[in-house]
Amino acid sequence: MVENLPRRPAVAGAFYAGTGKDLAQQIESCFLDPRGPGELPARQRSARRALDAAVVPHAGYMYSGPIAAHVYARIAAEKPPATVLILGVDHTGASRGASLSDRPWLTPLGPIEVDHDLVRALTAGPVEVDEVAHAQEHSIEVQLPFLEYVLPKPRFVPLEVGFGPYAFLEEVAGIVREGVEGRDVLMLASSDLSHYVPVATADRLDHLAIDQILARDPRGLYDTVVRKRISMCGIAPTTVLLAATQTRPLTSRLLRWGHSGEAEPMHEVVGYGAIALERESGGGPAVG
Predict the structure, then answer these.
(1) Which among 28, 44, 105, 140 is least surrounded, fewest beta carbons within 10 Å?
(2) What is the DSSP letter of 12?
(3) Whole-prediction pTM value?
(4) Do residues 130 and 99 make contact, with C-beta atoms less than 8 angstroms apart?
(5) Residue 121, Cβ neighbours under 10 Å: how many?
(6) What is the biggest distance separating any 2 CA atoms in the chain, rounded to whole angstroms?
(7) What are phi and psi of 87, to 5 degrees?
């Protein structure tokens, strides 16, 4: 049965390199890229972790990888979390609402284990295990090689969130909030921003959405994206992340905004943002 087999990569060799050696080199190039942190991740970790949650892009590595690397540099520099909960997008329309996976996932860097206890804690209401919904979805998959590069033996939980009314996303956020209570969980929302618009338009619209994320206002983000028709594919997972963490004392920071036109010339671009939500007692100045 599909539930007993590891989930095989759907976009290896397309969104990112298809072999372990090439993929590790590609990830390192993302860190070293001028759009990225500019250096490889720290070898020494802090004994604590300030990063509580983050928004990170999920396009092909040549386009969004250096932007994503800003978040993963933070993860590499701090105490590893016990589990990473990745809230992903339903690009394919295969999810019936909010879909979990409860099996290991493979990447060219090897298998990554799922936290089965957290999966059980999150299985409630509209959130259910649905392996088929994850089969061709890339938004969670492209985060995993970065996690494997910066964390020793990471565990994760994939939760694909389909777009729906705000009340539905608020319900999912409540399940997430209760499910992670008392657990050492780092939350990531996987999202790109504006899709296929001129650079000036992407800059203007993306920062309307980013301002709401920085304000930690889930309803404000949802309403802004819908009202302004911003083609932010990860509006659902990002809204859930903001709503699930809304009562926590966190500081939000824009680490880097960028777009696909920085990687190669193009008339219409896709926007990307790396945003950190940190405990107020820790963290340094914003980068970028």
Answers:
(1) 44
(2) B
(3) 0.94
(4) yes
(5) 19
(6) 49
(7) -95, 115
Question: Please, is 274 exposed, middle or buried when counting C-beta atoms within 10 Å of its C-beta (0-12, 13-18, 19+)?
Answer: buried
Q: SS3 for 29?
A: helix
pLDDT, tens digit (0-9, with 9 covering 90-100), for 225-251? 999 999 999 999 999 999 999 999 999
Angle at 37 between CA 141 and CA 188, to 5 degrees: 35
| Percent of the chain surpassing pLDDT 90 | 90
Q: Rounded CA gap, 97 and 154, in Å?
A: 26
**Structural domains present in the chain:** 17-41+50-279 (3.40.830.10)
Mean pLDDT of 12-18: 97
The pLDDT confidence band at residue 286, using thresholds 50, 70 and 90, is very low
Q: How far apart are the two ends of the chain, measured CA to CA in Å?
A: 47
CA distance 209 to 225: 7
C-alpha angle 116/107/79, rounded to 5°?
A: 60
Phi, then psi, of 209 in degrees rounded to 5: -70, -45
- How far apart (Å, rounded) are the C-alpha atoms in residues 181 and 34? 38
Total residue length of the chain: 288
SS (HEC) of 168-224 = HHHHHHHHHHHHHCCCCEEEEEECCCCCCECHHHHHHHHHHHHHHHHCCCHHHHHHH
CA 232/CA 243 separation, integer angstroms = 17
Show Cβ contacts of residue 21 under 8 Å, excluding neighbours closer than 6 positions.
Answer: none
Cβ within 8 Å of residue 11, ≥6 positions away: 138, 141, 142
Q: DSSP for 109-161, please give it.
A: TEEEEE-HHHHHHH-BTTEEE-HHHHTT--TTGGGHHHHHHHSSS-EEEEEEE
